[in-house]
Amino acid sequence: MKNVLSGIFAAAFALSTSAAQAQDKPPLKIGGILDMSSLYADITGPGSETAAKMAVEDFGGEVLGRKIQVLAADHLNKADLSGNIARDMLDNQGVEMIYDVAASATALAAGEIAKARNKIIMFNGPGSIRLSNEACGPYTVHYVFDTFGQANVTGLAAVKSGLDTWFFLTADYAFGQDLEKDTSNVVTKTGGKVLGSVRHPLNTSDFSSFLLQAQASKAKVIGLANAGGDTVNAIKQAAEFGITKGGQKVSPLLAFVTDIDSIGLETAQGLLLAEAFYWDMNDETRAFSKRFMERVKRPPTSAQAGVYSSVTHYLKAVKAAGTTDAAAVMKVMKETPINDFFAKGGKIREDGRMIHDMYLFEVKKPSESKGRWDDYKLLATVPGSEAFQSLEQSRCPLVKK
Question: Domains (ranges, CATH) in the chain?
Answer without folding.
Answer: 28-145+281-357 (3.40.50.2300), 148-280+359-382 (3.40.50.2300)
